[in-house]
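WARN retry 2 of 3 for item q-0093 after timeout on previous attempt; input resubmitted unchanged.
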Amino acid sequence: MFERLAGDSGKLNGMTAVAHASLAAEIARVGRLGHLTAVHLADATGGDPSSARRWLRGTQAPSGAHAARALELTSLVERLAQVMQPTYIPIWLIKPIERLDHRRPVDVIRTGDYRSVSRLVASLEDMPVA
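OK item q-0093 returned
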């Protein structure tokens, strides 16, 4: 599907068509895992909800900064699924959190501050299991 978008060079925005298809599949898979909506994905990446819907369906992949933020989000969602009920992940992502200066994780991710959210998730990972 992405081959026709890539043209003669075999690349689309610096990524091969195969890489774009893999990225689209990864976003769709993790979106299902974390019960994400297009609004969550758009909030975290700075993309628009209509594009985010295509990303979640796996029919299109983001590029540039949107792709970077989407990959950061997928990494975090996979880790969050290990420490909380996956159905709670969408709530956690949009809830202001004191350790993020009362900002929402999706907003922090969108600004490119993945490491702050990652450190917060690491603290959850380090908590003893009750």
